[in-house]
Amino acid sequence: MENFELVTLRGGSRSIRSRMHGETMHIGTDPRTEALELHIGQQQLVERVLEWKGGKKPFVIWDIGLGPAGNAITAIESLKGSKTPIEIHSFEISTEVLEFALQNAEALEYLRGWESVIRGLLDGGIAYPLPNIRWQLHRGDFSRNQLIEPPPSAIFFDPYSPAKNLEMWNMETFRSIWMVVSDPLAPPCLMTNYTRSTAVRVTMAFAGWFVGRGIPTGDKSETTIASNRLELLACPLGHSWLSRVHSSTNASPIRGRNNERGPITPEDFAALRALPQFQGL
User: How many domains does the chain have?
Assistant: First the structure.
């Protein structure tokens, strides 16, 4: 039995369900719409690329959790009018889902016309979908691999959920990314993802990130956005969120690979309150 299957979403568009993880990708909407809302639009990616002042240095995008490539393809399509040099680094532990998507490109719609680019990426690890865009595939477990340079200006964080893929959402993983973007010479960076989990947000904050409320998309009334610059966040988490953390039954930061759900400890809550984002509240 294959590990993946096609499913039909509300509205008639098709998506992919992982039988192993029991999760459907882009469950509330189609892959292109979710990518446009959650990542490209929310990060103002097109505007930021057009305003890029890095000279010959590329605008770097990290696509963490390549999956069936919906986020990366939608980003490339959105950036067609730009002449800025761009690098997209896609990270994926297994390309099985992308290979399944490629076999079903006609049904998935967003992959139509991209078959040769995807085959080139899978076969050679690098593709050039546009003259100014270099797209590189990094295979392996992102939570265990050494990260790459140069630091990103945009991160699409899209692995399977914490319930199925805890190691990608723990403090060690978020801190390893933070160490790259917190360098004084690193550019302003935004990281978007689909969760609104209190525990995940606490974990991001402890890892060093400034964390904010993200836009709604699909069935999700709220998502999460994080940055290496507090001033980049339109809706940074504040006093009311700290109150929810204090009363939540699942607010303990995710440490290690076998984290247990539970309320935040008094010691961790005091440390959270002392972080730069929350000082003065």
Answer: 1
What residues make up the domain containing 52? Answer: 29-237
Q: Note whether residue 278 is domain-resident.
A: no
What pLDDT, in 10s, does the model give residues 15-70?
787 887 787 776 667 889 999 999 999 999 999 999 999 888 999 999 999 999 99
260 C-beta neighbours (distance < 10 Å), count? 6
Residue 257 belongs to a domain: no
Q: Which residue is associated with the tokens 């100014």?
A: 132
The CATH number of the domain holding residue 210 is 3.40.50.150
Contact 97, 16 (CB under 8 A): yes
CB burial readout 108-133, b (16+ within 10 A) else e? bebbeebeebbebbbeeeebebbebb
* Helix-, strand-, coil-residue percentages of the chain, each rounded to 5: 35, 20, 45
Tell me how far apart the alpha carbons of residues 276 and 256 are, in angstroms, rounded to a whole number.
Answer: 24
